[in-house]
Amino acid sequence: MSKPRICILGGTGFVGQHLAARLALQDADVKILTRARARHRELLVLPNVSLVIADIHDPDALKREFTGCDTVINLVGILNERGHRGQGFEQVHLELVRKILAACACSGVTRLLHMSALNAADDAPSHYLRSKGRAAALVLESEGPLHVTVFEPSVIFGAGDSFINRFAALLKMAPGIFPLACPRARFAPVYVGDVVEAFVKSLSLRASFGQRYPLCGPKIYTLRQLVQYTARIRQLHRVIISLPRPLSWLQAAGMEWLPGKPFSLDNYRSLQLDSICKENGLGALGIEPTSLEAVAPGYLGRPPR
């Protein structure tokens, strides 16, 4: 039996690096498309993993790089755009998916795993969630020999994550008082290792064809509880002030103009929906969810310098 040949888009990101390392142990040939090969040399030490310089928004480049692959994994996503009208989200989430589907059809790819998000839907309150929802619907409506699976995780935690670690950094910079927007927003943080396992298990699982899997951890937390936990693990003594909705909106309106957009109005709108699972897709895939408490102290437990 020949090795699986897998092409990953977004493979240099947080989830992508963990997934590439896991697939390297599966005796699969993995190709990661990137514009900045030199910045991700740590991936080159993985067996059977190659980094290829390519513009993933170029349809011809996608057709060329998908040729010879049997599976494509799309992990590409942004939490904020440069503008404020949703065009950036549409380009990265929806237009890219259209190009991926067309390239799969031209290149003979028969398997597509697609990363979406909890609450992604056409009627969601934020540009992020609406564009993610439209992209997921487009993937699931695809016809022909392409077998697709969509994953919808809550916030993902683990070494190198951009959620828990971001709050750890913000808490460190806070001068004793930490004003927190949307403190009652609820999450079921899911461990990156469990997300990766869900992708790997579904690769050849026929029962996963055409399915969408919400992915959550075993416990629900408010945003305030997550920030308090992060402060406690990092040994940071901060007074966390829960902001009411009007002040949360004002904080988002101001912070979205800061470099890197640490918090935006689109993020604020996404937080109006709880990021929790009605039914956890990890169970359907035979995966026992890993708790935040079992992992986070390992990468947050070092006192700040």
The total count of strands amounts to 13
- Radius of gyration from the alpha-carbon trace, in angstroms: 19 Å
Strand order of the largest sheet: 3-2-1-4-5-6-11
- Secondary structure category: alpha/beta
| Share of residues in strands | 15-25%
What is the CATH superfamily label of the domain at 5-160 and 189-215 and 277-289?
NAD(P)-binding Rossmann-like Domain
Coarse morphology = globular
The CATH topology assignment of the domain at 5-160 and 189-215 and 277-289 is: Rossmann fold
What's the architecture of the domain at 5-160 and 189-215 and 277-289 in CATH terms? 3-Layer(aba) Sandwich
- Termini separation comes to 52 Å
Question: Can you lay out the helices and strands and say which pair or pack?
Answer:
Layout: E1 5-9, H1 14-24, E2 29-34, E3 49-53, H2 59-66, E4 71-74, H3 87-107, E5 111-115, H4 127-140, E6 147-153, E7 156-157, H5 164-173, E8 177-180, E9 186-187, E10 190-191, H6 192-202, E11 211-215, E12 221-222, H7 223-233, E13 239-242, H8 245-255, H9 265-270, H10 281-284, H11 292-300
Parallel strand pairs: 1-2, 1-4, 2-3, 4-5, 5-6, 6-11, 7-10, 8-13
Antiparallel strand pairs: 9-12
Helix pairs in contact: 1-6, 2-3, 3-4, 5-7
